[in-house]
Input
Amino acid sequence: MTAAPHACQAAFLPDPTKAGEMRQTTRAFLRRCRVPQPVAGFVVLAVSELVTNAVVHGEGEVVLRITVTVDVVRVSVTDRNPAPAVLKEAGPDGESGRGIRLVHAISDAWESSGEETWCEFRYARAAA
Output
């Protein structure tokens, strides 16, 4: 027996304040979907990093989509920049360049096709 997925979507113009707003929205959505900690915390962190990356490096409207199924949370962020997000090595004094590396470290899978960067978190849903 499979449960129907739950989804949340937000579209907005690039704005540095949107990362904080999307963290709050994501936290509330995951709580409503009963996604357990620490998975929910990792998802919120990934949302923050991917939204920030799209705002800083993307082009045009940013769209955040979060889908929760019985055992996977998927985060997708799209914009109109055709260049894919890449893993970088930030220097010790670098102020940026760690976001995608962080997403890579905390997620079970991630990829960037250019306009879309996504990541997934697998978990076992606690009995309701």
